[in-house]
Amino acid sequence: MKELKERYLERLSELYPTIAKASTEIINLQAILNLPKGTEHFLTDIHGEYEAFSHVLKNGSGSVRRKIDDVFGNTLSSRDKQSLATLIYYPKEKMDRIRQTEESMEDWYKITLYRLIEVCKCAASKYTRSKVRKALPKEFAYVIEELITVRPEVSDKESYYNSIVSTIIGIGRAEPFIVALSELIQRLTVDHLHIVGDVYDRGPGPHIIMDKLKNYHSVDIQWGNHDVLWMGAAAGQRGCIANVIRICARYGNLDILEDGYGINLLPLATFALRVYKDDPCECFKLKGEQNRDINEKQLEIRMHKAMSVIQFKVEGQIIKKNPGFHLEDRNLLDKIDYERGVITLDGKEYEMLDINFPTIDPKHPYALSKDEEEIMSRLESAFLNCEKLQDHMRFLLNKGGLYKVYNGNLLYHGCVPLKEDGTLKSVRLYGRSYKGKSLYEVLESYVRKGFYALNKKEKERGKDMMWYIWLSENSPLFGKDKMATFERYFLAEKETHKEKKNPYYNLLENEKVINMILKEFGLTEESAHIINGHVPVKAITGESPIKCNGKVLVIDGGFSRAYQKQTGIAGYTLIYNSYGLILAAHEPFESTEAAIEKESDIHSDSVVVKRVLERKMVGDTDIGQELKEQIEDLKMLLQAYRSGEITERM
Ligand SMILES: O=P(O)(O)OC[C@H]1O[C@](O)(COP(=O)(O)O)[C@@H](O)[C@@H]1O
Ligand SMILES: [Mn+2]
Q1: Average of per-residue pLDDT values in the chain
Q2: CA 47 to CA 207: how far, in whole Å?
Q3: pLDDT value at position 569?
Q4: Pocket-testing residue among 44, 226, 330, 564, ligand 1, by greatest number of atoms within 8 A of Cβ
Q5: Cβ(67) to ligand 1 under 6 A?
Q6: Whose CA is nearest to atom 15 of ligand 1?
Q7: Exposed e or buried b per residue across 589-623, where buried means at least 16 C-beta atoms within 10 angstroms of its C-beta
Q8: 541: confidence class by pLDDT, cuts 50, 70, 90
Q9: What pLDDT score does 160 carry?
Q10: To which H or E segment does residue 15 belong?
Q11: Alpha helices in 453-501 (DSSP H)
């Protein structure tokens, strides 16, 4: 044991070769511990709505505006503060407009630069100089540092700053400088971003969101069921591929695949046009407002139906291949009487709203036709070989997981499967039982195996498991008793569409149950929270996202336009800064254009969920914990230098 310690100290002495260097590092780390905790920003269920996403990313769900309020208090009108906020979110676009009406741009630059520098100073004050320096845009790094640091040795500060600002304006660099400062403020306002699942599906730009996330300075992602669906598709799992394409078609978003990812859908299109030529495909109308031409719409509706039929077939095959999934009762194609146009479910007969299935052989309803097989095999290789998709999925794998414990909070997308009595539900997977945290962990390991396992069988299991995570009642990411896709397309009876939620969702107010879950994930402190997405909070009916006296926060972002009618708002996001937790309720996002022109911001309401008694410092966070350990190690090294166990390296 001692040997190990010695070896460790030797290694450490390579990094801190002298007493002076080790001491300096201890002092630096100690200083960081005493800075206020960085701001965390939580977003969930973005569902492809990249414009709204991009806006909340820019405004930090109200954090930028709060900074402006802190700095200017009553010395600026609320209008001016809002203009300044909009400028910080959209500097280029805003200046394009201002230039058209402003009489003296020079004055405007002066006032604006002064205001931005003040906000920037405030945003930077939470960080060490070294961290701020790393965030500075290269081109203006030196000047910005000059402007935001207090220089006691300069006696006439005002004229010092004024001369820098005048030079910037004089040499025609005011606008790029304003852009750089605005972006820096955005960057410094939020220290770390959490995405609590469901980047993908329903909206038009998940690939754009993924690109933005890839460039974001600090982020983690808890996968949502829709994300795992896309991961499964990228791994070549046919059930996932079929669902991904069906959902894109349903929302009129096939462009994501064709233009966003370069996946060729022509074979599917020609097939759908041929096979469903005279079929009105009534059950497969597209969702949302679709402003596209009628022929295009007709084509997409047919592709929607063609892919849905393929989905029900390939899912049937996966269910047969994996008896352990216990999903046999979801195989419905063999329950249809194709002659009479009815289906029998639980002993009851229902009329099918559509009975035109030219590719289904009633004796072998789950077999793909030759053409369907050909399409799926081409799609499989298209998904597997799509560089950009693979790159996005690698990012999800590297930055994400099924859950996260971070600064005393437990983050996951869906739920922890429970029994009616509130105890953990045990789930058998490939011969072993798992519940709670171990269920999360084994499922995550299967996802990774689906991408990386060398053993073919393990890899195959991993892939199928991604489809299972998408829709199984035992999946913590889905948490409903069935996914009633088939019934919702083909049956009029609403009772068959019902997807019953796991008891978890009825137990969210039960403190005993919530404490049990937190403890299961190693969180025993009274101050711990669960942060949850997945289920839209229906503010319209008075539902609150704050459950269990604030211990649970269900912040389904409601970004998804398709769901805004049901929720009545555009959902919630959460901020955790050094003063506590703040929940922001958002109004629907009209457009980027409106956000700039009308200076409309979409957070309508901010509720302080919890105000801490004492301001939280870095020392109180997970990173603070690590820093404290580093300090302890360095103290050990110092001791070793002083006692002569280790000699300084000069
Ligand atoms: O509204 P759509 O697109 O028809 O999708 C409904 C389906 O999506 C789900 O709600 C799952 O998606 P979420 O994770 O966004 O809730 C299923 O339970 C349901 O069958
Ligand atoms: Mn979800």
Answers
A1: 93
A2: 11
A3: 64
A4: 226
A5: no
A6: 534
A7: beebeebbeebebbbeebeebbeeeeebebbbbeb
A8: confident
A9: 82
A10: helix 2-15
A11: 456-471, 485-490
- Concatenated DSSP letters for 287-339? PS---S-HHHHHHHHHHHHHHHHHHHHHHHHHHHH-GGG--GGG--GGGEETT
Q: Which residues pair with 427 in a beta bridge?
A: 434
- pLDDT value at position 2? 66
Q: How confident is the model at residue 604 (pLDDT cuts 50, 70, 90)?
A: low
- Give the closest residue to 83 by CA, choosing from 60, 110, 64: 64
Q: What is the largest CA-CA distance in the chain?
A: 93
pLDDT per position as a tens digit, 289-327:
667 788 888 999 999 999 999 999 999 999 999 999 999
Q: Is the separation of the CB atoms in 52 and 589 below 8 Å?
A: yes
- Residue 619: alpha-carbon gap to chain centroid: 27
The CB-side HSE value for 570 (13 A sphere, CA atoms) comes to: 23
Contact yes or no for 625/408 (Cβ under 8 A): no
Write the residue with the smallest CA distance to atom 16 of ligand 1: 534
Which residue is listed with tokens 């269910």? 319
The pocket of ion ligand 2, defined by CB under 5 A, consists of 198, 224-225, 534
Amino acid at 190: V
Higher pLDDT, 146 or 475: 475
Mind listing the pLDDT tens digit for each residue in 548-595? 999 999 998 678 887 777 766 677 899 999 999 999 888 878 888 888
Alpha helices in 125-259 (DSSP H): 129-135, 141-148, 157-170, 174-189, 206-215, 225-234, 238-250, 254-255
Give residue for tokens 């979801």. Answer: 330
Going along 390-508, which residue ranges are E strands? 400-401, 403-406, 409-412, 427-429, 432-434
Distance (Å) of CA 225 to CA 197, 236, 323, 386, 485: 8, 17, 21, 21, 15
Quick check: 3 pLDDT over 90? Answer: no
Q: Strands (DSSP E) along 487-562, which ranges? A: 529-532, 546-547, 552-554
- Which ligand has the shortest distance to the CA of 482? 1
CB-based contact 628:619 (threshold 8 Å): yes
Residue 563 CA, closest ligand 1 atom number: 1
CA–CA dist 409, 403 (Å, integer): 11
Sign of CA dihedral 17, 20, 24, 30: positive
pTM recorded for the entire structure: 0.94
